[in-house]
Design a protein that fits this description.
Blueprint (H helix, E strand, L loop, with lengths): L1 H18 L11 E9 L4 E9 L4 E10 L2 E14 L6 E14 L5 E14 L5 E7 L2 E3 L6 E2 L3 E8 L1
Antiparallel strand pairs: 1-2, 1-10, 2-3, 3-4, 4-5, 5-6, 6-7, 6-8, 7-10, 8-9
Length: about 160
């Protein structure tokens, strides 16, 4: 498990270092509040708050719910790179942790969540859409992974 965590960290560091040499334009919004779907082996749905800490670095917090789960709380950092030929569109990579609190006294689960995706700010409305690949690596309860997880978010921008 330590090897997987180290490999994921090195991959994210390589992505961050490889993109910092380009001149970057900041995001067209600072904060987004809305809904998130987390689709895979067991769907989660709930709330998302995303805030840009710098021009490229954003933090996202989620509060999700699903079948058999009381709540899931997550925190992630994302590094955004604008796509020059598409106004309002950027790709991003990052990662974070998700903690699930199961119903019926089944305990908790901690997930490592690397991610890569696209983020789009609608130019004519205060809306943001994002779609990402969010593989999951379980850090407790015997481990495990779910590489077929995807996320979709719709947020009102401030």
């Amino acid at each position: 498990m330590l090897k997987k965590t180290l490999l994921a960290g090195l991959l994210m560091a390589a992505i961050f270092c490889g993109t910092t040499a380009y001149a970057q334009k900041g995001p067209s919004y600072k904060t987004g509040l809305g809904l998130r779907l987390d689709l895979g082996d067991g769907n989660l749905y709930g709330f998302s708050a995303k805030h840009f800490l710098t021009q490229q670095l954003a933090g996202e917090a989620t509060l999700l719910f699903g079948s058999g789960i009381n709540a899931s709380i997550g925190a992630e950092l994302q590094y955004h790179v604008p796509i020059p030929s598409a106004s309002g569109l950027s790709w991003y990579a990052g990662g974070g942790l998700q903690m699930l609190f199961y119903k019926y006294n089944l305990g908790t689960s901690v997930w490592l969540r690397p991610m890569a995706g696209l983020d789009y700010k609608v130019a004519t409305a205060p809306l943001n859409l994002s779609f990402d690949w969010r593989p999951t690596f379980v850090l407790n309860n015997g481990g495990g992974s779910d590489i077929g997880r995807f996320g979709l978010a719709l947020r009102f921008t401030l």
